[in-house]
Amino acid sequence: MAKKIVKLGMVCLTRNTFDYKAAEEIYRGIISELEKREDISLCACPDPVMEQPDAARAGDMLMRAGVDAVAVLSGTFHLGGLVTEIKKRCDRPLLLWGLPELPYDGGKIRLNSVCGVNLDASNLYKSGRRDFTYKVSESIDEDWLDAVRMIAALKECRIGVIGSRAHGFYNVGVDELALYAKYGCEVEYCELADAYSFPADEKDEADYLARVRSLFDGSALTEDKQRKVAKLCASLKGFFKAKRFSAVAVRCWPEFAAGFGIAPCASMSLLQDDGMIFACEGDVDCALTMLCHSAAGAKTPFMADISQINEEENTALMWHCGVAPRSLCAADCTPTLDTYFAGGKGVTAGFVLKTGRVEMARLDSVNGSYRIYLEKGEAVPMEKLLTGTYAKVRFDRPAAEVTDRVILNGLAHHVSMIYGDCDRAFRIFAALTDTEVL
Question: 380-383 long-range CB contacts below 8 Å, 24 or more apart?
């Protein structure tokens, strides 16, 4: 999955009492490297900044360019008012970037860059500006960039709620205006029938039918149900694109199967392999977490429940009713299409997920306030004993602690799960957006 492209502002701060020429050379080398990247649209101030008026002009330029965030390179130690002037004029998340010290020259510190980072951080913190992080390195902080991608994705997000939340799932409801105020997301509600009745592109429908037949053992399905899965894929894809949604949360039961003839689970599995984000049961917050994962480059995030806990093994069954992307099926497992609920109208994907390092996350709202839950572990081998899509996960912490964290903090019962690790990026995201980390 390609990472979300962000517009990155860049400025270098220096002072002529240090080796500002060496700092400028380093800065130009950094610009040259960043300009080669396809996941960044770079807007760099052409010359290093030494004085307050230069900082004001740099801030104005970056603001006009509409950057998503600003990397402030502490080329050398510098005047304390430079970063506050830039922040005042371009109020975007900051990376305070320190350089490793150069070899001493005649007994003098040449850059004193880290002290400049310390000065900038203290000025920002004590002025109430906390949306910054720092790194001392020759290269940019990739986790900070991924956190910026998450912020930008939410700010631009149009999330469609097809139907509503599932019956009785009060805990996945959201305060739309609080969500907008916090992250900039826009929520749009649509009728179920508007989505499943959307005109299906004939070529898409044929392509999806071929995938249904080639990727799954569909022997439990009638020909009509196989065609309904493909038709629904094409309709939901068209609806998703026409409405310009970033992600969709679907009230997938109880009315969907009665209205369309099958539940949407298997279709959602196929669509998520095409890079579209679909969350079950009208869970907006889980869809937003999946969007954050995707923005940071995580491939095919999917929804899962902590369904069973085994404290002796330190494992949990991460299960859901059959929506995980088919591409995540374990190599030794035969994926099936099953009809185990909704009076035979379920039509869910069924397989064990592959082994490997996994991360679980949830952006979770409580009365309009947000917190982020993070957990890591290892998906280990297991037999195909159930319907639905699932993995046995051995956590990095005791399973009893995991259960306590989830239940005693009232966390909603869905998480976004990926193969990979966005933990530090999420923690930086939390710091930049003043979001509590559980």
Answer: 380/315, 380/355, 381/330, 381/355, 382/352, 383/352
Q: In this model, does residue 201 exceed pLDDT 70?
A: yes
DSSP, collapsed to helix, strand or coil, labels residue 221 as: coil
| Bridging pattern class, strands 348-352 and 389-395 | parallel
Q: State how beta strands 278-279 and 247-250 pair.
A: parallel
Helix (H, G, I), strand (E, B) or coil at 352: strand
Looking at the chain, the domain(s) classified CATH 3.40.50.10940 span: 6-140
Which helix (DSSP H) or strand (DSSP E) does residue 187 occupy? strand 186-190
Phi, psi at 316, each rounded to 5°? -135, 150
Reported pTM: 0.95
pLDDT band (50, 70, 90) for residue 253:
confident
What is the full DSSP assignment across 2-32? PPPPEEEEEEEE--TTS-HHHHHHHHHHHHH
Q: How many residues does the chain have?
A: 438
SS3 373: strand
149-171 mean pLDDT: 92
Q: Which residue has the tokens 């710091």?
A: 431
Backbone angles phi, psi at 409, to 5 degrees: -95, 5
- Are 352 and 382 in contact, with CB atoms under 8 Å apart? yes
The pLDDT score that the predictor gives to residue 377 is 96
- Positions of CATH 3.20.14 in the chain: 153-437
> How many other CB atoms sit within 10 Å of the CB of residue 138?
10
- Looking at residues 249-269, what average pLDDT do you find? 91
Q: Which helix (H) or strand (E) holds 317?
A: strand 315-320
Percent residues over pLDDT 70 in the chain: 99
Query: Do the Cβ atoms of 8 and 69 come closer than 8 Å?
Result: yes
93: cis peptide before it, omega within 30°?
no
Helix (H) or strand (E) holding 329: none
272/295 Cα distance (integer angstroms): 14
For domain 153-437, give its CATH number from 3.40.1190, 1.20.144, 3.30.70, 3.20.14.
3.20.14
Assign domain 6-140 to its CATH architecture: 3-Layer(aba) Sandwich (3.40)
426: left (phi over 0), alpha (psi -120 to 50) or beta: alpha
Sheet holding 69-74, edge to edge: 40-44, 6-13, 69-74, 94-98, 132-136
What's residue 77's pLDDT? 98
Q: What is the pLDDT of residues 304-317, one digit of tens each?
A: 999 999 999 999 99
Cα 49 versus chain centre, distance: 34
